[in-house]
Amino acid sequence: MPRRSILTAFECENLLALPDTKEELIQLYTFNDTDLARIRQHRGAANRLGFAVQLCYMRYPGIVLAANTAPDTTLLRIVTDQLKLSGDIWNDYSQRPETRREHLLELQSIYGFQSFTTFHHYRDAVYGLSNLAWQTDKGIVLARELVDQLRNRNILLPAINVIDRICAEAITRANRHINTILTDSLTRCHRQQLDELLKLKDGSKMTWLAWLRQSPAKPNSRHMLEHIQRLKVWQGLNLPIGIERQVHQNRLLKIAREGAKMTPADLAKFEPKRRYATLVALAIESIATVTDEIIDLHDRIIGKLFNVAKNKHQQQFQVNGKAINDKVRLYGRIGQALIEAKKNGGDPFAAIEMLMPWHTFTASVTEAQILARPADFDFLHHIGEGYNTLRRYSPQFLDVLKLQAAPAAKGLLNAIDVLRDMNNNSVRKMPSDAPTAFIKRRWTKLVLTDIGIDRRYYELCVLSELKNALRSGDIWVQGSRQFKNFNEYLVPVDRFVALKQAKELSLNVDTDCDQYLSERLQLLGEQLATVNCMAMANALPDAIITNTSGLKIKPLDTAVPNAAQTLIDQTALILPRLKITDLLMEVDEWTGFTRHFTHLKSSDIVKDKTLLMTTILADAINLGLTKMAESCPGTTYAKLSWLQAWHIRDETYSEALAELVNAQFRQPFAQNWGEGTTSSSDGQNFRTGSKARSTGHINPKYGSNPGRIFYTHISDQYAPFSTKVISVGVRDSTYVLDGLLNHESDLRIEEHYTDTAGFTDHVFGLMHLLGFRFAPRIRDLSDTKLFIIKGNAAYDALKPMISSDRLNIKAIRAHWDEILRLVTSIKQGTVTASLMLRKLSSYPRQNGLAVALRELGRIERTLFILNWLKSVELRRSVQAGLNKGEARNALARAVFFNRQGEIRDRSFEQQCYCASGLNLVTAAIVLWNTVYLERAVNALRSHGQNIDDTLLQYLSPLGWEHINLTGDYLWHSNKIGVGKFRPLKQLPKP
């Protein structure tokens, strides 16, 4: 059986390809004087040309141009231009084979090139890839590293099959080494326990492994106890301490993913070392996953209890609303009577009795006291009614989590230890010396009573504060992925110090604190002075600031010119009509995006592209695999499910999306909408099914129905280059930076727009430090304050907008290195910006880093607002960018139409597939529309119509009226021919 190749044909072709830009070609293949002198030593124009071309190929890509192989035409033209020769003489080169061999030997001798040999170089090449193979098993990544190593050593590249074999051997050696590390420290007991995971669970038709990998269905005490039991089983394996740190996390995750896709029967067939290594990786990942899911369940259960208490509190208040209003009106009349009595010198008691008898007045006072709420009006006393729900699982919840705390949360951790001891010893009464310093003021009256500490409210307070402390990072959990020690997310301190000293932080700002602050504060002072002068002179464009009404900005005119609307209508009429299946096939022929959906284990490309696109389309249109199998003749649910399991992942979706975004970026017509340097992001709410109501994902902003947010980034060229599924309860701003930093496309975004939900001061600070210009459209801008430093400078015209607080420059200086370490960690991908923003915003105390970053953000936010006040162009740019995002959301809503646009998949993984599939298909529609809009405009021009180029910006590639999204999903072979296009509809008569 032949060895399986780890490189695809496409990767092989691109690995040895010449650069595709003229600038790179010129840079690589321009000869110096010495080169030209050596070339001219050869007799005959054809020999000089052949010698020069061979030199170019040996330098880059590092190969010998085979006999009877024509050189690249662009490269040949560059060489002939330098030598002042004609390219036509290439066929005259090397009429004698000896001449070619002599030239190759001469080039190797003069320039030090070495031929690759199995004896001298093969084994070194395999060992040279060891470190990289330890981190990844992607063949193309290893192949590129190998090629770079050989080029740096001036070794000519071997045949592509040799490169493939070297990479495959490096991966095989790394796999064996990883399996050895994961299994050598296992005892006989460990192996027996791991084998038990593949057996059927008592009284069940599923194996222990299948049961352990189930996700919780609802946030209630029953499912919490069941999930805690899963974690206990995983912890009961007692794997060797630190085994997860001995293998690179990328490889560990890959092994776990492969194992998760396999049936227990498949795992049982593995040879022992590989089987145990796979199960260990699965156990490590599952412990982290289950731990995080348990904490998330607790978070949602607490959240539901608080919401129920708050609603009950409000309902009770509303029930008494009429009585309270009557009492307020009564005492208003009494107050007015007393005022009149004092003014006229009358008897106040008589004044009251003129309105009502005295006994009625005294009775009304008693009623008012009953209706009145305490001064610290709160709903917490209703939380006690949900105590039994928490009590069902809290003892096991506190017992199963391995908690550690920062100094600020030691009191809370001590309180948890007290509760653990009470649970273990079945003690009911709280000890008098139980920790209480962590108790917030609003809880004090409920917890600390006249007869001692109230056990019920004490435990409720501890569980509530634990939820907050886990979010902020004051308390962390051993074995968790989302709730680790804050410092473990960041670049190690020693590495950060070394990078800073070597000036290799690769940040877009001056890393010297004094220099940075000097520049930003100087700019802030200049901008404040400029805008203040403009405001005093009433010279702010379409804006005015007054002491009485504050800031007023004239709304932008968004009308589309008549000529542009006419062009929009004309192009829409002549675009060809087609089915969504035909559109996807046509776009795949242009871009080959389907090649990125490789097999998880073998990295093979999908053989049946139509089956793959059927699976993608099932995600995109929200039909689901079962219904899609019914709507697509010739396929089955089993085929679609298998393909989704092995070929569809977050990374394959990301790579395919990048292919489409890059294709859009290269379209000349897309330049009419932008240069690909600005973008916007927005969240789109999709309802989840009624069964998901109990998951707790509800936000009053979107009504009482549960839902999920698909948060999408779109470029100025309409390409949606990133999407992420987020909870409706999380602010959009948390995820703004993730899309900008972690997309796979060639876009280089410089400026980004969001709506009000997309900004916080922390985001403003991080955006600037990471090199992005941030421009949110802030609702109620007049209520948003400007921040200035302490000093004597007066900005009278801006006074209504200036905050009474001053910038805390001291905090920035004190925590400057921490800020740089955080930003470096985000830039290098050690941690995501969203995770850090969630933790920083959740700190219940005034954390120094959070305060310092907030102050940096206030500087940047103030600079932005000042720029907004004086620049109508900025306002128009932001408005235009956000409008593109909203229009894209309309397209997404139209595509995601099945099941009434409601997400029925309950697993988070499936919801992510829906979001990614939807984004990929909308990107394909955008690309197809762009190509055909250009053809439509050219057709109108050739038809005699004079079209002003300035009107093209008003066209949009987001239309779908000409695309049939419904019906049976049939895949037809290409009937229009490769490289050809569909005919446009008949042009209107001029």
Description:
It comes from Vitreoscilla stercoraria. By secondary structure, the chain is mainly alpha-helical. Among the domains are: 9-181, no CATH class; 318-371, no CATH class; 402-480, no CATH class. The longest helix is centred in the first third of the chain and has 48 residues, at 272-319. The chain is globular, with a radius of gyration of 34 Å. The model is unreliable at 691-696 (pLDDT under 50).
Detail the topology: elements first, then pairings.
Layout: H1 9-15, H2 22-29, H3 33-40, H4 45-59, H5 73-83, H6 97-111, H7 118-128, H8 130-135, H9 139-152, H10 160-184, H11 188-196, H12 208-212, H13 221-235, H14 249-261, H15 264-269, H16 272-319, H17 321-344, H18 348-355, H19 358-371, H20 387-391, H21 394-400, E1 403-405, H22 410-424, H23 441-447, E2 448-449, E3 452-453, H24 455-472, E4 475-477, H25 486-489, H26 493-501, H27 513-536, E5 543-546, E6 550-553, H28 562-574, E7 578-579, H29 580-591, H30 609-620, H31 624-631, H32 637-647, H33 650-666, E8 678-687, E9 707-715, E10 720-727, H34 736-742, E11 751-754, H35 761-769, E12 773-776, H36 809-814, H37 816-827, H38 833-842, H39 848-870, H40 872-895, H41 908-942, E13 963-964
Helix pairs in contact: 2-5, 4-5, 4-6, 7-10, 9-10, 10-16, 13-16, 14-16, 16-24, 17-18, 22-24, 24-38, 27-39, 29-41, 30-31, 30-32, 30-41, 33-41, 35-39, 40-41
Outline type: globular
The main sheet comes to: 5 strands, mixed
Multimeric status of the protein: single chain
Q: Evaluate the radius of gyration.
A: 34 Å
Provide the residue-averaged pLDDT: 88
How many individual β-strands?
13
